[in-house]
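ok trying this again, last paste got cut off
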Amino acid sequence: YGLGLVLSSNISERVDFTISSQSSFNTVENSLSTRLNTEYFSQNSSLLANFIIANGFVFRTTLNHQLYNGLSEGFDQNYWLWNMGLAKKLFKNERGEVQLSVFDLLKQNTNIQRNVTEAYIEDVQTEVLQQYFMLTFTYQIRNFGNAPAKRENEERRGWDWRH
């Protein structure tokens, strides 16, 4: 069973955000071996926000909360993944942008996967990319075809980090 909710808003020319949550309750019933019957819960909630600050600066942040309950011993997880960036629009037409970003600000990123087969249930934790910083430069070359140029808030919506 699953349930999801998304709330998104451009509350002003300078601020937009998206809040979302996806929950899933799973029941595994194995007709070959009832000892493999189990229930588990997972939830992913996130906040994505963009703020245009004065003088062409843009602050961007994504905060994800991941929760797993009912997995094998030692595999239940409850952690935060926080990414943020500060960008500066460049050039007269603001087609250029330089951004300094940090991924996994809290150093909590992890990856859990549950595999369910007829014969076994397996929970696996794998290594994932840890905290890093990145400096990027982006330049919008031109509009393709006769499509109108994107408004600033539409461009900001495209920025999204997920794990």
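PB: full thing came through this time. The chain has a mean pLDDT of 83.
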